[in-house]
Amino acid sequence: MRKLRTIEMNRLSIEEFREAPKLPLVVVLDNVRSLYNIGSIFRSCDAFRVKSVYLCGITATPPNAEIHKTALGGEDSVEWKYFEKTEDVIQQLRQEDYFIYSIEQVENSTRLQNLSLDATKTYAVVFGNEVKGVSQNVVDLSNDCLEIPQFGTKHSLNVSVAAGIVIWEFARQLII
């Protein structure tokens, strides 16, 4: 086997990305503090052509050198918006008929392997702070919560890793 060169991968330009059909998914970051995590999430959103990223609360916004270090330009291709309060954007998305999932461990959460999506609907997923997770107010406003099953001694994943796993599952069900 021979590794492909970048030119052989037929990647989209930023202009082509902006015009291409998007995954019907909005990623909401609820007070994510690490600039590197934010950048990594932008990079995953670019990889799966997520519609947009909503940055809320203390979540930093581009342009930022530390976000760029891990996003590698994903912050330039993926549409993003900033909101002071996560609750405001969740209420707006609900009015626009988005189905909102918070990614959190709660009573009666839906395990990711049991998720069944409808390609005619639009979705939003909320990822929370690295220490506190998704705020309870946002969980309360969500339609449901998704949980990634874990089998080791730790009870959580890094937020950018969790985002990659969840976004992949949405892409797998909705566009692949």
TrEMBL record:
Any one GO cellular component localisation term in the record: cytosol
Superkingdom of the organism of origin: Bacteria
Single GO molecular function: RNA binding
Keyword Methyltransferase belongs to the record: yes
Chain ranges of the tRNA/rRNA methyltransferase SpoU type domain: 25-167
Keywords: Methyltransferase, Transferase
Record bears the keyword Transferase: yes
CDD domains for this protein: SpoU-like
Gene Ontology terms: biological process: methylation; RNA processing
InterPro entries attached to this UniProt entry: Alpha/beta_knot_MTases, rRNA_MeTrfase_TrmH, SpoU_MeTrfase, tRNA_m1G_MTases_N
PANTHER family named among the record's database cross-references: 23S RRNA (GUANOSINE-2'-O-)-METHYLTRANSFERASE RLMB
Protein name: tRNA/rRNA methyltransferase SpoU type domain-containing protein
The organism of origin for this protein: Prevotella micans F0438
